[in-house]
Automatic annotation (TrEMBL):
Active site as annotated: 260 (nucleophile)
Family membership: Belongs to the UDP-glucose/GDP-mannose dehydrogenase family.
Annotated InterPro entries: 6-PGluconate_DH-like_C_sf (IPR008927), NAD(P)-bd_dom_sf (IPR036291), UDP-Glc/GDP-Man (IPR017476), UDP-Glc/GDP-Man_DH_C (IPR014027), UDP-Glc/GDP-Man_DH_C_sf (IPR036220), UDP-Glc/GDP-Man_DH_dimer (IPR014026), UDP-Glc/GDP-Man_DH_N (IPR001732), UDPglc_DH_bac (IPR028357)
Entry EC number(s): 1.1.1.22
Entry protein name: UDP-glucose 6-dehydrogenase
Keywords: NAD, Oxidoreductase
GO biological-process terms attached to the record: polysaccharide biosynthetic process; UDP-glucuronate biosynthetic process
Length: 432
């Protein structure tokens, strides 16, 4: 089938590339000419394991093309996927301007009947709005259907998730449109769940809100464990053995970040408020997460009193490992607070430094290895559990730091090992 994908961010590019890999003719559309030119050469604008290889392969097979030209993308297409961003507005609402503009562009450039598929995370009711815009701007007497097909991929494992996802959700009014999108996805061999459009839109928000809730819940349990001298890792393992709870997403830490959970949880609270529903539970999840991001600072202040003049190794900057994405990363809050307190921040990340420079305070010093960051440091903050950071040994800390004092926000090291080497080690939900 011929498919157009609009927007080449994480969701759009991965979707387009993977659809070409299973044999469809895919044209990815973006307004950024320079970005399009790079992608034509098989260069991915994002760091995502396995993606460039598939891009190059399918460009060579003639199944994947990139363009800025709407006519070229939408004419003869059986389906057009909308995968543009829905940034968060100041009031927490999702900004739908890009989605609406794409709907106008698709409608104005059609040459045949088409199914328009929304991949972007959009508030309940948005697909109906998209349909109205499409109908209002139609270039001719064509039939358009709208399908909600939310995306569940994770950054850093997006390609793998697309091929091995747990479910494909298809929300449609017209069963024929749902069947067409089911057929498009058939080669993935992933279970399909069909429902109405509004429920499909809701599944996405509810899933992310639930996962965020799981994280805030275990973080609260971790904070309690510290006070009651229990071990949150054992608690999570014991809880997770119950199938109804499950053992995933129960890693306590410095809170969730990234481009999805913070944005989607705030958007759902907003969506609820429009129908006079006070989503108190989710508000608490968000609040707990904010407090959790400051946890390392609190612990350092309790230990040192003033942080003025202290040299701090900030290890890991991205919001999680295997991505260079710095959006809503806890490292931003931590670096800002440290600088405000008068500390000197020496930061390391294997791939996010360029992105970090745009977001961390200008005073931050960047180094190329975790060992270098530890040199003469008064204490270390472990922020992202990169393998390079986890590989540090007690000797690495002892040989380089003034005194080996670690505040670990990701529980990277073995408690007994740290104790054996006389390292002052504070982690999350485990006894100091
Ligand atoms: C998340 C969801 O996992 C995807 O299913 C969804 O498609 C995506 O958002 C989206 O809406 O597009 P992502 O933001 O890439 O994916 O990252 P996750 O792996 O879910 O991690 C999010 C944050 O939670 C990270 O900061 C991570 O460190 C934190 N986390 C995760 C924990 O603190 N503890 C855990 O047990 C798991």
């Amino acid at each position: 089938m011929k498919i157009a994908v609009v927007g080449t961010g994480y969701v759009g590019l991965v979707t387009g590339v993977c659809l070409s890999e299973i044999g469809h003719h895919v044209t990815c559309v973006d307004i950024d000419e320079q970005k399009v030119e790079k992608m034509r050469q098989g260069i991915s604008p994002i760091f995502e394991p396995g993606l460039e290889e598939l891009m190059k392969n399918n460009i060579d097979r003639g199944l994947l093309t990139f363009t800025t030209n709407h006519k070229e993308a939408f004419s003869d297409a059986h389906a057009a996927y909308i995968a543009v961003g829905t940034p968060q507005r100041e009031d927490g609402q999702a900004d739908l301007r890009f989605i609406e503009q794409v709907a106008v562009d698709i409608a104005a450039n059609l040459t045949n009947d088409i199914v328009v598929v929304t991949k972007s995370t959009v508030p309940v009711g948005t697909n109906e709005r998209v349909k109205r815009i499409l109908l209002k701007n139609l270039a001719g007497d064509y039939k358009v259907d709208v399908v909600s097909n939310p995306e569940f991929l994770r950054e850093g494992s997006a390609v793998n998730d697309t091929f091995k996802g747990d479910r494909i959700v298809i929300g449609a009014e017209n069963p024929e449109a749902a069947d067409l999108i089911e057929a498009v996805n058939k080669p993935f061999g992933i279970p399909v769940f069909k429902t109405d459009i509004r429920s499909a839109e809701m599944i996405k928000y509810a899933s992310n809100a639930f996962l965020a809730t799981k994280i805030s819940f275990i973080n609260e349990i971790a904070n309690l464990c510290e006070k009651l001298e229990a071990n949150v890792e054992d608690v999570a393992a014991g809880m997770g053995m119950d199938d109804r709870i499950g053992n995933k997403f129960l890693n306590a830490g410095i809170g969730y970040g990234g481009s999805c959970f913070p944005k989607d949880t705030s958007a759902l609270v907003q969506i609820a408020s429009y129908v006079q529903h006070d989503f108190n539970l989710l508000k608490s999840v968000i609040e707990v997460n904010k407090v959790q991001q400051h946890m390392l600072i609190q612990k350092a202040k309790t230990r040192f009193g003033s942080l003025e003049g202290r040299r701090v190794a900030l290890l890991g900057l991205a919001f999680k490992p295997n991505t260079d994405d710095m959006r809503e990363a806890a490292s931003i809050v931590l670096a800002q607070e440290l600088v405000k307190e008068g500390a000197e921040v020496v930061a390391y990340d294997p791939i996010s430094i360029e992105n970090a420079k745009k977001l961390l305070p200008a005073q931050t010093v960047y180094v190329n290895s975790p060992e270098e960051a530890l040199l003469a440091a008064d204490f270390a903050f472990i922020v992202t559990e990169w393998k390079e950071v986890k590989a540090l040994t007690p000797e690495d800390f002892k040989e380089r730091m003034k005194l080996p004092i670690i505040f670990d926000g990701r529980n990277c090291y073995n408690l007994n090992e740290m104790e054996k080497h006389n390292i002052e080690y504070y982690s999350v939900g485990r006894k100091p």
